[in-house]
Each structure stands twice: as structure tokens, then as C-alpha cells.
Design goal:
Elements lengths: L11 H10 L1 E4 L9 E5 L2 E5 L2 H6 L8 E3 L2 H4 L3 E2 L19 H10 L4 E5 L13 E6 L3 H6 L15 E2 L13 E7 L8 H11 E12 L14 H9 L3 H14 L5 H13 L11 H15 L4 E5 L10 E7 L1
Parallel strand pairs: 1-4, 3-5, 6-7, 6-9, 7-8, 9-10
Antiparallel strand pairs: 1-2, 2-3, 10-12, 11-12
Helix pairs in contact: 8-9
Length: 322
């Protein structure tokens, strides 16, 4: 039986708006290649498949408009277009990590925030009001993108803040908060999850996407013990943070011992955003269970291990309901 947390929002209003206002566009021969977008209300939303196109009521290929790259860039980047489910599919039958993200995004409505979207915003209904936050401004974000990701795909943040602080977001003001590949970069994950609870309304949702260690470059690193995470929350320590840098550089980049101390100290001085914490699925479930039981009174939770095959199938997902 599918968990009630996964029940999608009614897609009816979105379907009506898409049919009335949406444009299906493609710019072949440009840097966008064969990617098809739904252009709607000032943003362009990548479409995963013909199945999604037809589910939104478009005829393929009759309704597709061929445009140039400049025209595509007149719409700001947005998240992928989620499939308009009316009832949730069995999550254990999902083998595509993109579909898993779409399923979680389809459950959202109202207004919310995504933290650290960079050039990969989460799939959320275009009728949702989403604000984007990041530690850095758009130029720094573009400079840090992989070489094969166009800078024009990066989402410009409206707020510059961390997940631990969420400065400028009033308590009890959000219907949802999304953090994809962010929580592992925080020095105090418990504090970040507690802060998320504070800014959400009752019934609001926190969606977390977390790298599963055995499917990433973290595979050889020790999993972060719960006691360590509790200590990071109760008594933050620069010395403990330096230990994380040492471990990361040694186990991921194989920095030799003779250079490790200098390199780790330099990374800490520049506040490099490494994976401070590492989880596999059992360790993550234990962590979330402890938070829910003793630290932050989330009313409900749902989690799933990574689906699909590495390297893309490396994402655990969790929904926490305030």
C-alpha cells in the first residue's frame, strides 16, 4: 500500500493552466540539444519524456514549436515538469531517480523554498511559488558548475543564506522546503532539520535528497555515527570540522599524509563545501528516527533508498511532515 505522504496534489488546476498558457518548445542545434521544455509563466521546465508531454494534453509532435536558443533563454530556468499523477505509483516499482524526484515534487502545493538548487532545480508544479536560496550569488554559482553544464541553466537565488540559518524566511511561513544534496554539506545537520521545522507551517513538508555513500565517492569513508551528529549539534567544534576535512581529503582524494594537514587546514580556511557527513540507508534511517523520536516533533516521515543504477542512481530521499 502506498504511503499517504506520497499522494500527489490534484493536477487538475495545473492541467488547465498548461493547456491555456503553456508552450512546448525545442531549440535543436543549440546548446540545449534535443531537450524539450514547457514554457509557462516566465520559466522553462524540462520535460522528461513523450509520456509526460501527452499526459499534459499536448499532441506530439504537432504541438511542438521549434525556436532558437535566444528564445528559450527568455524564460528563466525552472525545475523539470513532474508527471501529473492522480494517485501515487508504487515507489518500490520506480527505477528512474528522475521519476522518484517527480513523485515527491508532485505532492507539493502552495509556496516554498528550495535550498541550493544551482542548475538542477527540483521538479515542482509550475503553479507552486518557489523561491531559491543559496550560500552564493549567481556568478559564484555559475563559476562552480561542471564544465558540461551551461551557466545559463543556473537558478538565480533570491536569498543568500545557509540551510542552518534560512535568514529572511519567517517562522511558520512555508508550505514546503526542498534541500537536494545539501544536508551532507552542513556542519550541523540536526540544526538544519530543526530550522526547517521552524519555517514550515503545520502540515508543511521538508524534502531531502541525500547521497547514498556506497554509490558515491564517499564509499570508502566511515559512516557518521549518531553520537557524532548529536555532538555536532550540541557543541559545534572547529577541531571536529577539521577532522572531517582530513578524512574527506584522505579517503576521497587520497591526499598523502605529508600534505594532509596543510591541505585540510587550507580547505577549512576557505570554508570549502565538502561532504561533512556520510550515510548509507540504514544509518540515515537511524538518524531520522532519532530526530523524530527525541529532538524535533515531525508528525510523519517517509524514506526510500537510492533507486536506479550508479552513477546517477545514488540518491536516498526523505519526506518529513511538520
Amino acid at each position: 500500500m502506498t504511503d499517504p505522504i506520497l499522494q500527489p496534489a490534484d493536477p487538475g488546476p495545473l492541467l488547465e493552466v498548461v493547456r491555456a498558457e503553456g508552450l512546448l518548445v525545442q531549440a535543436p542545434g543549440s546548446s540545449f540539444g534535443a531537450q524539450v521544455f514547457l514554457a509557462l509563466r516566465g520559466r522553462r521546465h524540462p520535460v522528461r519524456s513523450r509520456e509526460v508531454v501527452e499526459a499534459y494534453g499536448f499532441r506530439w509532435p504537432e504541438d511542438l514549436r521549434i525556436v532558437d536558443e535566444r528564445t528559450v533563454r527568455t524564460w528563466r530556468p525552472g525545475g523539470p515538469l513532474p508527471f501529473p499523477w492522480r494517485s501515487a505509483p508504487d515507489p518500490d516499482g520506480i527505477t528512474d531517480p528522475r521519476e522518484m524526484r517527480e513523485l515527491l515534487g508532485s505532492t507539493l502545493s502552495g509556496s516554498g523554498v528550495e535550498v541550493g538548487a544551482s542548475a538542477s532545480p527540483f521538479p515542482v508544479s509550475p503553479l507552486c511559488r518557489v523561491r531559491y536560496t543559496d550560500l552564493f550569488g549567481i556568478e559564484r554559482i555559475r563559476a562552480n558548475l561542471p564544465r558540461d553544464v551551461p551557466g545559463g541553466d543556473a537558478v538565480e537565488p533570491e536569498l543568500i543564506t545557509s540551510m542552518n540559518e534560512l535568514s529572511g524566511i519567517p517562522d511558520g511561513s512555508l508550505d514546503f522546503l526542498i534541500a537536494s544534496h545539501v544536508i551532507e554539506h552542513t556542519k550541523d545537520p540536526i540544526g538544519a532539520i530543526r530550522r526547517a521545522w521552524e519555517v514550515l507551517r503545520p502540515g508543511g513538508r521538508l524534502i531531502l535528497v541525500i547521497p547514498q555513500a556506497d554509490r558515491t565517492f564517499d564509499r570508502d569513508r566511515p559512516r557518521t555515527p549518531l553520537a557524532h551528529l548529536l555532538e555536532d549539534h550540541r557543541a559545534p567544534s572547529a577541531d571536529r570540522d577539521l577532522d572531517h576535512y582530513r578524512e574527506f581529503l584522505r579517503d576521497v582524494y587520497a591526499v598523502p599524509e605529508r600534505a594532509l594537514e596543510h591541505t585540510a587546514t587550507d580547505h577549512q580556511r576557505r570554508d570549502e563545501a565538502i561532504h561533512f557527513h556520510v550515510w548509507d540507508h540504514p544509518a540515515w534511517l537511524g538518524f531520522i528516527g532519532e530526530i523524530q523520536a527525541t529532538l524535533v516533533p515531525w508528525s510523519a516521515s517517509w524514506s526510500h533508498a537510492a533507486v536506479g543504477e550508479p552513477p546517477n542512481g545514488n540518491e536516498m530521499v526523505t519526506v518529513l511532515v511538520r
